[in-house]
Design goal:
The protein is α/β, with parallel strands linked by helices. 43% of the residues lie in helices and 15% in strands. The chain is built from seven helices and seven strands, in the order βαβαβαβαβαβααβ. The chain has a seven-stranded parallel beta sheet with strand order 3-2-1-4-5-6-7, sandwiched between helices. Helix 1 packs across helix 7. The chain starts with a strand and ends in a 5-residue tail after the last strand.
Length: 229
């Protein structure tokens, strides 16, 4: 049985990935700060381990997860994220700190903590990034900067861990119909129509394709864009 650890499993994309992994027989380790929500999700996925920790507080992760991580980890999927929009001239330091903690420093620290288990299983790290990790636009400075950093983290990790058999994939979804996207539309002052955007199931399919690829190959970067309507 494969062991898979996910962050952001209570969100749109993360929950679908958790469902797919559970359906194929993986033992799930779901990490998040909302213990009640994770417990409810664990009831849907029998055998799931709940890890209550906050990726937005990376300096506390080691203590929060001490003795709780598996010895072997086949997949680490980073789905947790936060978004705040605004012009660079209007963003206060707290917003920058939050974006970098949740979207970059947290994933970096969780990856560091799980690397021994990933190496033991020749596992796979998947970082669900964003189209904003490839191009930054007006009003997206803090979020995009954190996602550019996440891309750099993936590239460095891939080069460092290739010899240990650890695969690393960055997935760059375009606008996806999730609660985060609804928040983005609210900040943009635009009407939100979920049907106009990528569905979480489609992004999950891309993630699973990378995870299920035979070991003779590795998907390094995967961009998922809205389709034709």
């Amino acid at each position: 049985m494969a062991n898979s650890l996910l962050t952001g499993a209570t969100g749109g994309i993360g929950k679908v990935i958790a469902q797919r992994l559970h359906d194929r027989g993986d033992r799930l380790f779901l990490l998040g700060r909302d213990g009640a929500a994770l417990d409810a999700l664990a009831k849907e996925f029998p055998g799931t381990e709940v890890l209550v920790a906050d990726v937005g507080r990376p300096t506390e992760l080691a203590a929060e997860l001490a003795g709780l991580l598996p010895d072997r980890l086949d997949a680490l999927v980073h789905c947790a994220g936060a978004v705040e929009l605004g012009p660079v001239g209007d963003l206060d330091p707290e917003i920058w700190q939050t974006m970098f903690a949740v979207n970059l420093a947290g994933p970096a620290e969780l990856t560091r903590l799980t690397l021994p288990a990933l190496r033991a299983a020749a596992g796979h790290v998947v970082l669900v990034n964003s189209g904003a990790g490839l191009a930054a636009h007006a009003g997206w400075g803090a979020y995009a900067a954190s996602k550019f950093g996440l891309r750099a983290l993936a590239d460095a990790l891939r080069a460092e861990e290739h010899g240990n058999g650890v695969r690393v994939t960055s997935v760059y979804p375009g606008r996806t119909a999730t609660a985060m996207q609804e928040k983005v539309h609210l900040q943009e002052g635009a009407d939100y129509v979920p049907e106009e955007w990528i569905q979480p199931d489609s992004v999950a399919s891309a993630v699973m394709a990378a995870l299920d690829l035979p070991r003779d190959a590795e998907v390094t970067d995967l961009t998922v864009r809205p389709g034709l309507r």
